[in-house]
Design brief:
The protein is of the alpha+beta class and about 290 residues long. The chain has two domains: about 5-160, Ribosomal Protein S5, domain 2; about 170-285, Alpha-Beta Plaits, CATH 3.30.70.890. The protein has helices at about 70-85, 105-120, 125-135, 140-145, 180-185, 195-205, 210-215, 220-230, 230-240, 265-275, and strands at about 5-20, 30-45, 50-60, 90-95, 150-155, 160, 170-175, 220, 245-250, 255-260, 280-285. Strands 1, 2, 3, 4, 5, 6 and 8 form a seven-stranded mixed sheet that branches. Strands 9-10-7-11 form a four-stranded antiparallel sheet, sandwiched between helices. α1 (about 70-85) links the parallel β3 and β4 (about 90-95). The radius of gyration is 19 Å and the shape is globular. The protein binds cytidine-5'-monophosphate (C5P). Cytidine-5'-monophosphate binds near residues 28, 140, 155 and 156.
Length: about 290
């Protein structure tokens, strides 16, 4: 029997994203809070005599299974840098997390690939090496190695795990067209702040008062997302009018998440947001990463 590993890997939202400044290397210095949510891509890794191969079994949108895919980039890095030998593996993907959405789907898949191949081929490398490779793949990838609730600093790749926050009921609303992350950062419309909101959010989460959490949500990239895609601001307004305790663009967008009082209220608000080609998901936050 060929060995195989199946993983479900989650999306994220950022309840806080502060842009602290622009760096000499072109990236932006950030202080941001990551939170995994129960919207999962499904990945399956099995040993194969036919080399490295990615098969997309299911995807609601066009998705290339070529070298531009972060799953294949992660697999190649795993073989060269961690295992230091080429092995055959068939990777199957069921894609559920929208692309170019601010939900971290590609980064989550990349992290799950490092984790999946590590357990399939039982490499001897420690978590430190895996973290370094994850940071090479993208700023959001290290977070997804552990998931849950965490603070990100640097360009977002330096992760400090936080005690998981209270379970939150969210509505995710993603307009049909995605948005390119570099375009948002390079628009010149981001608001710079000093990192206090990210720091203070730890205590707000610990207190667990949903109305307070709703009021504390902040994203310095939001004005840039609204500038590039004015309809996103209208989505935020509608979420608040429908009763969300707070609403915010996630990451560089264009997905907006609304915080609800309960899962049933999240479903109710979600039903009001359907239409106009939006993808709408009522989800709960989860305290872990890939499972
Ligand atoms: O690290 P990642 O490949 O996900 O970043 C994609 C792009 O987003 C970068 O090339 C850069 O334009 C922008 N970015 C940034 N500052 C960050 C993270 C991303 O400017 N901290």
């Amino acid at each position: 029997m060929t060995a195989s590993i199946a993983l479900k890997t989650p999306a994220k939202v950022n309840p806080i994203l502060e842009v602290l400044g622009k760096r000499a290397d072109g990236y932006h210095e950030l202080a941001l809070v990551f939170q995994t949510v129960a919207l999962y891509d499904e990945l399956d890794f099995s040993e194969s005599p036919r080399g490295l191969h990615l098969e997309i079994l299911e995807s609601p949108f066009p998705l290339a299974a070529d070298d531009s895919n972060l799953i294949l980039k992660a697999a190649k890095l795993f073989f060269t840098e961690i295992l230091q030998e080429e092995r055959g593996v068939q990777i199957r993907l069921k894609k559920k997390i929208p692309l170019a959405a601010g939900l971290g789907g590609g980064s989550s898949d990349a992290a799950a690939t490092l984790l999946g191949l590590d357990s399939l081929f039982k490499s001897q490398e420690g978590a430190g090496k895996r973290m370094a490779l994850a940071a090479q793949l993208g700023s959001d990838v290290p977070f997804f190695l552990t998931g849950g609730t965490a603070l990100g600093t640097g360009r977002g790749e330096k992760i400090t795990a936080w005690t998981p926050g209270p379970e939150m009921a969210l509505v995710l609303v993603k307009p049909q067209e995605g948005l390119s992350t570099p375009a948002v950062y390079q628009s010149g419309k981001a608001v710079m702040t000093k990192g206090d909101r990210a720091h203070d959010f730890k205590a707000v989460l610990r207190e667990g008062n949903m109305a307070k959490i709703g009021r504390a949500l902040f994203n310095g990239l939001e004005p840039a997302t609204f500038f590039l895609r004015p309809e996103v601001e209208a989505i935020k307004k509608r979420l608040l009018e429908a009763g969300a305790l707070g609403a915010l663009v996630s990451g560089s967008g264009p997905t907006v998440f609304g915080l609800a009082e309960s899962p049933s209220q999240a479903r109710h608000i979600g039903a009001e947001m359907e239409g106009k080609g939006h993808s709408v998901f009522a989800v709960q936050t989860v305290p872990v990463g890939a499972i």
